[in-house]
């Protein structure tokens, strides 16, 4: 039976779209979907590899997700999408800290693999994480979309749909850095690092299932561009329309640019 808070279901190319009344109901629906996908994978595999996103857009999803008592966290390895270069684990903007504080410490997965952006040898860290991703291919990825249409930190100027790497150093564009200030992670643009480690687009698209959670009116233009513009690195999230098993979860604010909505 359809949830009462679900206001629209649609599809663009291969990408399923579900719109919910508000951020809270959207997060709950995404959490339920991801939990169901995890259960299906664990019916046929001993362990599951899960990718988690960060940022303000993921608050409602993670809050609902960690409350699900049916998830077998002892059989789950977690990864994440990106981390600032040179930022310590204790900084409030650290994505490692974000995930540890908001879900990892609560659910205690089998293993949690973090990108160490403050390591002295960045190339060695890239190789370490790529080796982990090759050893443990991602079954379920939970991602978001940035205000500039990025997925992970693959901003339009450097996004590459055919990238040969799985993890790389990226230069953050100004819009992406300003988004971090707007969300309250940094006091000003000069405090935001200019580089980060990020999974590449092919690494994300190799995931078996993708759940993409995108609330908030400030994301509405990026959502519109991802769904109705060309599949192009001008809006990196547009590539999601080619994935065989991806769902885009929106609230009414982020969905205001949907055709027919």
Can you give a write-up of this model?
This protein is of the alpha/beta class and 261 residues long. It has a single domain, classed as Rossmann fold (3-Layer(aba) Sandwich). 30% of the residues lie in helices and 21% in strands. The chain has seven helices and eleven strands. The protein has helices at residues 23-42, 59-66, 95-107, 122-135, 174-182, 201-205, 220-228; strands at residues 6-12, 15-20, 48-52, 76-80, 82-84, 111-112, 140-143, 167-171, 195-199, 209-214, 246-251. Strands 1-2-11-10-7-3-4-6 form an eight-stranded mixed sheet, with helices on both faces. Strand 1 and strand 2 (15-20) form a beta hairpin. Helix 1 (23-42) packs across helix 2 (59-66). The chain is globular, with a radius of gyration of 17 Å. The model has no long low-confidence stretch (mean pLDDT 96).
Short description:
The protein is an alpha/beta fold. The chain has a single domain, classed as Rossmann fold (3-Layer(aba) Sandwich), CATH 3.40.50. The chain has seven helices and eleven strands.
List the helices and strands and how they pair.
Blueprint: E1 6-12, E2 15-20, H1 23-42, E3 48-52, H2 59-66, E4 76-80, E5 82-84, H3 95-107, E6 111-112, H4 122-135, E7 140-143, E8 167-171, H5 174-182, E9 195-199, H6 201-205, E10 209-214, H7 220-228, E11 246-251
Parallel strand pairs: 2-11, 3-4, 3-7, 4-6, 7-10, 10-11
Antiparallel strand pairs: 1-2, 5-9, 8-9
Helix pairs in contact: 1-2, 2-3
């Amino acid at each position: 039976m359809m949830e009462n808070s679900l206001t629209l279901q649609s599809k663009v190319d291969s990408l399923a779209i579900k719109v919910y009344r508000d951020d809270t109901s959207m997060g709950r629906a995404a959490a339920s979907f991801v939990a169901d996908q995890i259960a299906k994978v664990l019916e046929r595999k001993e362990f599951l590899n899960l990718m988690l996103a960060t940022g303000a857009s993921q608050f409602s999803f993670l809050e609902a997700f960690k409350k699900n008592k049916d998830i077998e966290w002892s059989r789950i390895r977690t990864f994440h999408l990106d981390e600032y270069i040179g930022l310590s684990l204790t900084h409030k903007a650290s994505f490692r800290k974000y995930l540890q504080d908001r879900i990892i410490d609560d659910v205690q997965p089998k293993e949690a693999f973090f990108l160490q952006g403050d390591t002295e040898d960045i190339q060695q860290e890239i190789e370490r994480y790529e080796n982990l991703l090759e050893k443990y291919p991602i079954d379920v990825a939970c991602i978001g979309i940035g205000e500039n249409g990025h997925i992970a930190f693959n901003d339009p100027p450097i996004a590459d749909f055919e990238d040969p790497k799985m993890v790389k150093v990226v230069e953050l564009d100004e819009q992406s850095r300003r988004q971090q200030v707007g969300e309250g992670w940094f006091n000003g643009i000069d405090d935001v690092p200019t580089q980060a480690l990020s999974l590449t687009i092919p690494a994300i698209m190799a995931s078996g299932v993708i759940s993409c959670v995108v609330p908030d009116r400030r994301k509405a233009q990026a959502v519109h561009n991802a769904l109705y513009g060309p599949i192009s690195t001008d809006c990196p999230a547009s590539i999601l329309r080619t994935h065989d098993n991806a769902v885009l979860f929106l609230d009414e604010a982020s969905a205001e640019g949907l055709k027919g909505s």
